[in-house]
Design brief:
This protein is about 65% helix and about 0% strand. The chain has two helices and no strands.
Length: about 80
């Protein structure tokens, strides 16, 4: 990716964090206890872990060739197909 893509992504993350912070501060009379904060932290960590796991499965599937026939494109013939072997 180019440097501009990284800058745009960073700007979007900072803008999102700013909106979230403003929303949090605008609800000043709402009290979130320790259990609520822990639930948010664990929920965020679980979401990140799930995303990492799914992306890892995507890469493993692509490397092992499980996705080759999913696109509907014919395979390149290199020494015959597996059915002929």
């Amino acid at each position: 990716m180019s440097k501009i893509s990284y800058l745009v992504a960073a700007a979007l993350v900072l803008a999102t964090m700013g909106v979230a912070w403003q929303g949090w501060r605008s609800m000043a009379d709402v009290v979130v206890g320790t259990a609520g904060i822990l639930a948010m932290v664990f929920g965020a960590l679980l979401t990140i872990g799930l995303a990492v796991g799914l992306v890892a499965l995507l890469f493993v599937s692509n490397r092992r060739g499980f996705d080759d026939q999913a696109g509907g494109r014919p395979q390149a013939k290199r020494g015959g197909s597996r059915a002929q072997r």
